[in-house]
UniProtKB/TrEMBL annotation:
Listed InterPro entries: Sig_transdc_resp-reg_C-effctor, Tscrpt_reg_LuxR_C, WH-like_DNA-bd_sf
Top-rank taxon: Bacteria
The protein's name in its UniProt record: Response regulator transcription factor
Pfam families linked to this entry: GerE
Length: 97
């Protein structure tokens, strides 16, 4: 369980390279700014809805709603599929550069 919210927030903001990849992914699939923030926590740390909710001071149900919207936009059915899609996206980006 997430015990030190400040440490996680700082760590997520410090990683500019992965943050850029998450932002590009968000733009590609039409994610809102808030969805992109939550997706970043999911991808970088593999946090559960309760932990993401604690990190962003929102209810786990709200996180679940955001995740459902993200999965709809990306046509995925689980957070694992969403993470796999992101990995394929990043690998594609590296191959084209």
């Amino acid at each position: 369980m997430l015990t030190n919210v400040i440490q996680w927030e700082v760590a997520s903001m410090a990683d500019e390279k992965s943050g850029l990849a998450v932002n590009k992914f968000g733009e590609r699939y039409g994610l809102t700014a808030r969805e992109t923030e939550l997706f970043r926590a999911l991808v970088l740390f593999g946090l559960r809805n309760e932990e993401i909710g604690a990190m962003f001071h929102i209810a786990p149900k709200t996180v679940k709603n955001h995740m459902t919207c993200m999965m709809g936009k990306t046509r995925t059915h689980s957070s694992r599929e969403l993470q796999a899609l992101f990995l394929r996206f990043v690998l594609n980006q590296q191959a084209t550069n």
